[in-house]
Amino acid sequence: MENDDFPETSEGPQQRSQSLMLAFFGNHVLEDDGLCVYSGSVIDVLGRVGVGEQAVRSTLARMVNRGLLLRRREGRKMFFGLTPQARRVLEDGHVRIRERGAVDDAWDGSWTLLGFSLPDSWKSRRHGLRSRLAWAGFGPLYSGLWIAPGEVDVSAVVAELDLADHVKVFHARAAEFTDIEGMIRDTWDLESIAARYAAFDARWTAHPDGGSGDDPIGTHLLLVSEWLRTIRADPRLPARHTPPDWPARRAQETFRRVDARTEGPARAAARELLETTRAD
After folding, report:
1. Helix or strand or coil: residue 87?
2. Which phi and psi angles does 111 have, rounded to 5°?
3. pLDDT by residue, tens only, the chain of 280 residues
4. CB–CB of 78/31 below 8 Å?
5. Residue 223: half-sphere exposure toward Cβ, Cα within 13 Å
6. Which residues pair with 187 in a beta bridge?
7. Prediction pTM value
8. In degrees rounded to 5, what are phi and psi of residue 113?
9. Reduced to 3 states, what is the DSSP secondary structure of residue 70?
10. DSSP 3-state assignment of 266?
11. Where are the beta strands (DSSP E) in 43-173?
12. Which residues have a Cβ under 8 Å from the Cβ of 153 and sit 6 or more positions away?
């Protein structure tokens, strides 16, 4: 399966509805194992951030087909919950948002190197591997050789794609004569990453309600969805090797400030708005 669970920033309507859907389930379902939400409640909440009913219904069906959501019928109503696969995706996103942060102030100088060689006919698996590696903080140093700062465990990714015979992973340190800043510039598009952070910071500083008015559940949904898209391509670079005035830290502070203000009210609103049932 191709990993577009956290879509790129330049997303179309279909990708936007899916990223908002994932953020919705991450915000209101992830912490309650077995919880399922009525489709009408999902339509209500996503409608608050500009996603139409038909788009919500088609996104729910597509995510069921991709193994990210499960369905439970009660009478004439359909409820949706998270599959184990979706939980893994969202838990990983939760760690990125709540625990790791956007800048690595404690980098120990180590790197993870991953080399792979796949048959030309394996386009889907190659795309899946590259997408997952990007989300895990890797970038392509050379064709077939990807690197990430720190020691990164990619065993689950390799196992999920059944690529153990085609992937080699090493942990290493750069020699003293290696130009770390130059290597980082060659591997990642720093201008694009910085632009994402700057745009996020500018938007949420100028409009801390996200443009959704006095609607905490809609504001928090937009905030988390946009932050996930912002950090998707960021390798979480070592702080001492980032360019001057790297905007990631400032954007992270903005996210945390708005998140602290809206998370509690959003949860309270969800308790009032969402019709739920149990999958077990």
Report:
1. helix
2. -135, 150
3. 333 444 344 456 667 888 899 999 999 999 998 999 999 999 999 999 999 999 999 999 999 999 999 999 999 999 999 999 899 889 988 988 888 888 889 999 999 999 999 888 888 888 889 988 998 899 999 988 999 999 999 998 888 888 999 999 999 999 999 999 999 999 999 999 999 999 999 999 998 777 666 799 999 999 999 999 999 888 999 999 998 899 999 999 999 999 999 999 999 999 999 999 998 7
4. no
5. 30
6. none
7. 0.86
8. -110, 130
9. strand
10. helix
11. 69-74, 77-82, 110-116, 139-142, 145-149, 167-173
12. none
Sheet order of strands, 167-173 included: 139-142, 145-149, 110-116, 167-173
Rounded CA separation 52/128 (Å): 29
Asked whether 180 and 241 are in contact (CB, 8 A), the reply is: yes
Report the Cα–Cα distance between both ends of the chain, in Å, rounded: 27
Q: Are 240 and 6 in contact (CB under 8 A)?
A: no
- Cα dihedral angle (22, 27, 28, 31), rounded to 10 degrees? 100
